[in-house]
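Lay summary. Proteins are chains of building blocks that fold into shapes, and those shapes determine what they do. In this project we predict the shape from the chain. Here is one chain we studied, written as its sequence of building blocks.
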Amino acid sequence: MKTLTLHAHDSGPNPYKVAIVLENLKIPYELKLWDFGDGENGLKGPNFLKINENGRVPALGKQSLQRPTPSVPSHLHKVQHPGTDQNPTINHCTRPAILTPSPEDPNSSVLAWESTACINHLLRTYDTSYTLHPNPSTASPQDLVDNDKWTSFLTTTLGPMMGQLNWYVHYNATKNEDARARYEAQVYRCFDVLEGQLEKSGGKSVLPDGFGAVDCHFYPWVNEWTYGKLDIGKYEKIRGWLKVVGERPEVKKIYEEIPKAEKAFKG
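And here is the predicted shape, written in a compact code that computers can read:
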């Protein structure tokens, strides 16, 4: 199996979700870190936008150095050799190498971005024994829906609410307590829902069948509770689940390795 590249940054939960799946499926991969901003190594810079035009990580997308076809200024297009039948000489201008994207996954020729799309691609392509997601041929319709609905709950509700809370706690230029309180309340509401589900599932995984892709989606976001300055004292099941998942070797490994990975461009 050839090595994949996971484009990430060292903060924010979504690249960690994909890395946990990669580790659990034992897929060889390398990490490339990008910065916020529009510089050479920036997510909003021209290099990364060739991989993901939305300027967000994670992405399983390739970068390669390639020289474009040189452009020719109009006054240098043709130099005719007087008195000969030779073809005109074209005087080319040299341009520096630029990044061009090509499919990163060398095993399937797929370029993926958005964490759910990346994870779904990995599950479809590599989890042929269905260790992290239900087998559509044998799972019950309810099991298939449960997998989808809890993934959707994370990606459309809990994750975005946590992201907004983090923004108003740490980054908003103007203090806005009303906005912060609104998103904090929404995160706690989501934690109430998750606590109830963990009560039903036995507490060691979001779904009762054991650790799976749904847990990979949830853990990096719920683990942000300290960054969001939240109190999870009353959430006994969530605290227990965080401890169980956080002690998995694959999870420990990616939280150690992503922050110290190499930048895509070292400058």
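What the prediction tells us: Strands lie at 4-8, 29-33, 59-60, 62-66, 98-102, 112-113.
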